[in-house]
Amino acid sequence: MSKGMFHKMLDGNLPMPNAAQTLGAKILEIDCKKGKVKVEFEAKEAFTNPVGNIQGGFLSAMLDDTMGPALAVTLEDNEFAPTLELKINFIAPAVIGKLYGWGRVVSKGASVCFLEGELFQEGTLIARSTATALIRNFSSSAKKQDH
Amino acid sequence: MSKGMFHKMLDGNLPMPNAAQTLGAKILEIDCKKGKVKVEFEAKEAFTNPVGNIQGGFLSAMLDDTMGPALAVTLEDNEFAPTLELKINFIAPAVIGKLYGWGRVVSKGASVCFLEGELFQEGTLIARSTATALIRNFSSSAKKQDH
């Protein structure tokens, strides 16, 4: 996705991708220079575990959807950046309702990028994440099938 | 959840938790002694990223739902085990359709447990995960709010 596409999503002129819509994601802020985004999420009953808290995997999906866009807004139109590795620390349980997350590019090399994110609910830090992503461009990646 | 509850889910006599249902999860095999489960998932259009592959976060949610049950089937009725840390390596893209995952207890101490899982689609290894979980029991945890 290009920077322009993210700005259209921010303005409500372009629908969010399916996975983001499922998570009730709404982009609140974009900083294309720093590689930082703030995103609102809606944790639904469909995401709950047997004790009624939000299953950790869905919190991971939300964090993936803060760090991915944080890097994507810094990319050129012919580039994309699959996540190679994602690590989450679960700090406090989350319940049904709104969550707020931010994602940030910690370091962006020619191809290797390190990202981080945090997820909050009513001011409480719920989970923290780091990720490693690799920048590729559409022409060179046509030869490879894996990423 | 107790071992008995998992066996009822395996036999179709108890519905899966909401998060598992959202992921189209169906328990195929349980080994309570080894702490190992095999789970089928249904990757839906609602989980796709802008290029039509399954968003990594939803693959993480599936892996969380293999490793969590692998440990849970070994626990006593008064015990539960929140995940403290989850790490995923994304190896190949997944598309809409069925995935198969297994989760396994690598090591189970008095409280600290290490888990691993793998997710496949049509024989291709899609993602691999490790997790750290902490066994608690319902009575002692009443004093603590964090996990």
Strand content of chain A: 35-45%
**What is the residue-averaged pLDDT of chain A?**
90
Q: List the helices and strands of chain A in order.
A: HHEEHEEEEEEH
Tell me how many strands of chain A there are: 8
Distance between the termini of chain A: 16 Å
Describe the oligomeric state of these chains in a short phrase. homodimer
Structural class of chain A: alpha+beta
Strand numbers in spatial order across the main sheet of chain A: 1-2-5-6-7-4
The outline of chain A comes out as globular
Indicate the percent of residues in helices of chain A: 10-25%
**Biggest sheet of chain A, open or closed, and with what strands and sense?**
6 strands, antiparallel
Helical stretch tally of chain A: 4
State the main characteristics.
homodimer, globular, 4 helices, two-stranded antiparallel sheet, alpha+beta, 147 residues
